[in-house]
Amino acid sequence: MRFIVLSVLALLAGPAAPGFAQSDRSIADRLPLFARNNCQQIRDPGNQLFCGDAELAAAAEKLSTAIEARLARLPDRLPGIEENAIWIRQRNLGCGIVGQIAVRPDDLDRVRACLLKVTEERAAILRDPDFDCLAANTAAGALICADPSLALAETELNGQVLALIGKLDPTAARFAFAEYGRWTRERDRKCNLVGKENVPLAELESAEGCLADYLKHKTGEIAAARGDPKKVFGRQVAARIPDTDAVDFCAARIHAANSCGSFLRINRVYALDSQVTDQEAQVTGEIEMVVLAPFTMCSKIALSCTGTCWDARTGRPQPSADAKERSADAFNVTRRLRIQRTFAFVKAADGWRCREDELAPVNSGTAGGGS
Asked: Which one of 183, 222, 252, 370 has the lowest number of neighbouring Cβ atoms within 10 Å?
């Protein structure tokens, strides 16, 4: 976990910025740890300061500990990782760091003081368990946060989920976390809360009963398993009908099988079109994903987790042969992807099973910048 958390703090780091050698060397000279820690290898100017300054490095370590504790409280860590990446970007902008432009020597003391202040404040905020609720960025999360009974029920469910997953080996745990994320997306669809992040809570109160029923049902399901995670996770291998829920199940399985969760989080899933016969079905689904950590535009991650290579300039899918010249380009943190894929299903005795070995390549997709 320490590696994951420290990676979160350095998600914007990468190869040395091309223009750094020509920048004013007095910045490096005024940071005591700069040379010893090879801070010139870090692209992000803010992270360069954390690397080269002892007081900032100590504050970053405290923040890392707070992030660790927070992620340990969450059954689905990926939204927390995404939220941290967005905070880093906002931290830089708030302290006067724009993109990859090096900090001017005259601004160093001011920028350093700002980074130290906001980092210490962030660590204090994350140590408050209530922040998990206040940081909710979905309509369902906001409703649960606003209702003490729903918040308590979710906390109880999260604790039981974590306890069960903790009994699994790493591979099974990866699939279990993916399944838990799918449960949440399915809940939001069934409670009609998808895409309603900006709707006033007063207009969403009718969904509170649905959320309460979901939390009660899942908590009861886990209690009935009597501590056996295999009775909760990995049991559903077929969908009732080839629809959005079926596409979500298939996409979650693919991402878990390919260890995509370290790089991408599935945010929303939609079924756009389907062709169904008695025994087979093809469903075209749209998958919205958030990039949690940079990956190469044309790589195993790009191909197995999104189905295509990407053009760094246009944000559009492209044949792998056309991407070779730009193979070193990578997606930035918090970038969002929308892709369309065709999923094949076959009818079985227990429902519709996804054929993970028969996935059509992406025929459309867009990559958008995050905020």
From this structure: 370
